[in-house]
Design brief:
The protein contains 17 helices and seven strands. By secondary structure, the chain is an alpha/beta fold. It is globular, with a radius of gyration of 28 Å. The protein starts with 23 loop residues before the first helix and ends in a 5-residue tail after the last helix. The N terminus is likely disordered.
Amino acid sequence: MAYPFPRFSSAPQTPQCLKGVESPSSWQSRGFDKPRSYATRWLLLSVAAAVILLVLLTKSLASHPRQTDRIPFSDSDIDDFFNHFEGRQDCGIASTDIYIPPIPFHATTKKHSLYCPNRARLLEAMSGGGRHGFDTPYFPLGCHFRWYSTSEICMILDRFDSVVFLGDNTLRHIYSALNMLLRENIALGGLRQWEMKESEREACRCDNQLTRPECLAYSVLDSRSVRSNDAASGHSSPYFCDRTPHMFIPIDRSPAAEDLHTSFNSILHREPDSYKPIAVIHSLSLATSLAWPTATSSMDEWVTLADISQKNVPFLWVGPNAAGHLKPPSQILSQGNNALWHYTTEMAKEAEARQLDTLGMYNFTLQAGSWDGTYYGQEVVLVQAMMVINWLSRLEST
């Protein structure tokens, strides 16, 4: 917040010669330089006053929250944001089980000061944190990210013309979790449940919508399909807000199929006169067996299409998950944690060279439970989706 500079009631007056006081000419005739001495004292006093004012303003600014993510600060305690979500009881997940807000160590510490001050620090913290035990909540490194309510997520999305997810199944799961949050439905929020039979809906609830191949076939791929079909079904689960379109474009190689380029270009040119940015979340890893050249080619491929459009298109490169302890032995060498860690670090360098933001998921999933050693359940992907939302909250809106 900017503070107004204090105004003087009147401009400083030039001192007048008074009776009984020597004139400047008499000072000079006696070999003195009184005017210069007076000017020096006036300059020193002015500098001292400016320093005091600067110190006071600095203290005032330090005690006030620095609003860098454009979402109002809240001093209230974090409740379970899933309390009113469909499936809260059936799925047995509370937001307080997967996210712990920062706790001040001293009574004088302001809670807002514990959150990351800018986007660079936020990405570094979310990528470099750890867990205090297997499957315990994740703690970012040095500063914290936020858990936003559904209404706050809507405020963040409203700042964009659209949001695009480009990637393989790892990113598909994160996009599914975003849909669960926006539909306030952790039971079936990631699925096109209007296409499913009642028996399929029962079989695909909660974690099963991510872990069973027959359920993944019904994954939501774009917000338009939910808006067009959900209300007509007998199992309606609408979005809490639906003003910003978002979609998932599946890719597993580079160059991608031409029809995927066409879909991406249609998004870029959907609103030719819009000033809002189009955010892209990009990831490619296990679908290519961690092929480094394919990943860098994919970065160049989609960034080039974005550049041609001359639109404001910020990119976030998302690294792969760590391997779970159930990873099959036959995949340990090619897709084990040594290979995944090297892929994570090298692709982060390549993304940085292309001026792309990077979010690593290796540390976050290293001590998390995986159902098959490769993919993870709701307790993981819901937090990953919230991390992406935190990145979106720090982007410039113009």
